[in-house]
Design goal:
Elements lengths: L1 H5 L7 H6 L7 H29 L3 H20 L3 H16 L1 H10 L6 H28 L5 H18 L15 H8 L11 E3 L5 E3 L5 H5 L2 H20 L1 H36 L9 H19 L6 H25 L3 H28 L3 H27 L8 H32 L4 H8 L10
Helix pairs in contact: 3-5, 3-16, 4-5, 4-6, 4-8, 6-16, 7-13, 7-15, 9-11, 11-12, 11-16, 12-14, 12-15, 12-16, 12-17, 13-15, 14-15, 14-17
């Protein structure tokens, strides 16, 4: 499903389509009014969708994502006028807010020892889909001369395939926070000396399988069950962030970079087509947006795939790697902002996106490997929420016409400065961490412990 959902042939040509004769929306309106609507809607939807994802056990939200992705291209293809494009931004916010359900779903159905390779394979499949979609879009535009309208309808057919595939995904057997009425009563009354054993049913082969207790919507949505979900969320939040070791390894080293870097990445991804159109207007020039996105995704997919086979002591070198690749990304953003050559801007974008894809893949499996399933689902949600909050602040101050409403070049200079701060922060801390670990005498038991994946299991409430 990830392959087809990301095989969006028309996405690299969204801005030329909106400002062209089909939608006839000005570049200023697209930059300073239309695109910020998606950011604000995404922020509003993210946390409720996260809770709903767990309540419905992941798969229904993945189906909803596929449905709204189909609706997205129906609006793009057939709905005229600015009001329809405003609705499009809200619709797409639903699509992006459910993306966290996809990764947390994958981790809920595979064993922990496969997290690193599964993360690499999953992100590689998604990037491979985007690569093929962008390449096909470029071929259809440059060689076949196909109109943007037909490219959008073609994309509609592809994402419809992803929507149909989502129905065949297996359903996870349990929810992380919503436990059912009887289980909720046990959680909220831990003093009970002899808690009731979970209901176990025998299948035809005679093996026991724990069944999630579900006595109708009244019991499932009972006050006790909702209170249990809140209690477990709080307990897992404490487990994820109260330990000094976890505070260092997941919050500072990985989660902090995730939130900071993703906020900048999404902002650049959203507005890069406007930068390309500023340097080389699509109305008067041949554009190669699809080819550039394909190259980015191909390099990013290779980097993501390689993560599953890299043997590095990330506790020692992780922060330094984050700082070094963030510094490379910083230079790429400044190149995009200051160059007058469209090819130099294209090259800067390829370097920037490849660095981000490589690092976010490492970050994802590192967080998942060091936490229990309850904790990583919550941590993913918190990281995404913090990243989106930062992006919303940047959008409101820098982009929104109600505040500064800056031009696209000035925006990218600010984004480059933002990434420079991230790179300096992690370079300093990473150098300190690496030097400190190099001075320590090596012991066999220490080396063995560092080379293995540490998994911290949450208490089963």
């Amino acid at each position: 499903m990830g392959f087809f959902a990301n095989c969006r042939v028309a996405e690299p040509f969204l801005t030329p389509y909106l400002i062209g004769p089909h939608k006839n929306i000005s570049e200023e309106v697209v930059t300073n009014y239309l695109f910020p609507i998606w950011t604000y809607s995404y922020l509003v939807l993210l946390f409720p969708v996260f809770l709903l994802t767990d309540f419905l056990r992941h798969k229904p939200l993945i189906v909803v994502q596929g449905l709204f992705l189909v609706t997205n291209y129906v609006l793009l293809s057939f709905a005229p006028g600015l009001p329809a494009m405003i609705l499009l931004q809200v619709n797409y916010a639903v699509v992006t807010s459910t993306e966290v359900a996809y990764f947390s779903y994958i981790y809920s159905v595979i064993p922990v020892e496969n997290y690193q390779r599964a993360t690499g394979y999953l992100r590689s499949a998604m990037l491979a889909g985007y690569t093929i979609g962008a390449s096909l879009g470029q071929v259809l535009v440059s060689l076949a001369g196909l109109d943007y309208f037909y490219i959008n309808t073609f994309t509609l057919g592809i994402v419809s395939t992803a929507f149909l595939i989502s129905f065949w995904l297996p359903m996870p057997q349990r929810s992380l926070f919503f436990k059912g009425e009887k289980a909720a009563a046990q959680v909220l009354q831990p003093q009970q000396e002899e808690p009731e054993e979970p209901v176990v049913e025998k299948d035809e082969a005679g093996s026991g399988k724990e069944k999630m207790e579900h006595n109708g919507s009244a019991g499932w949505c009972s006050r006790e069950n909702v209170a249990t979900a809140g209690y477990l969320l709080w307990q897992n939040f404490r487990e994820s962030y109260s330990s000094r070791h976890l505070l260092y390894s997941t919050l500072v080293c990985w989660s902090l970079w995730w939130a900071l870097a993703t906020a900048g990445y999404v902002q650049i991804f959203n507005y890069i087509q406007l930068m390309w159109d500023h340097i080389e207007p699509s109305a008067t020039s041949s554009i190669y947006n699809g080819g550039v996105e394909a190259a980015c995704s191909l390099v990013g997919a290779a980097a993501a795939f390689s993560v599953g086979h890299i043997k590095v002591t990330w506790a020692v070198w992780g922060e330094l790697a984050l700082g070094m690749f963030s510094a490379i990304a910083t230079g790429a953003v400044f190149l995009m902002a200051l160059t007058s050559s469209i090819w130099a801007c294209y090259a800067g974008y390829v370097i920037f996106k490849s660095c981000y894809m490589f690092l976010i893949t490492i970050t994802t499996f590192q967080i998942a490997s060091n936490l229990s399933s309850e904790c990583y689902a919550l941590t993913f949600g918190i990281n995404t929420f913090v990243a989106l909050s930062l992006q919303t602040i940047i959008t409101f101050v820098v982009v929104d016409e109600a505040v500064l409403g800056l031009d696209i070049v000035t925006q990218f200079i600010i984004y480059g400065s933002y990434y420079a701060i991230i790179s300096v922060l992690f370079l300093i801390r990473g150098t300190f961490t690496a030097c400190k670990n190099q001075r320590k005498p090596e012991h066999p038991e220490t080396t063995e412990k560092e080379s293995s994946v540490e998994v911290i299991f949450a208490e089963r409430f």
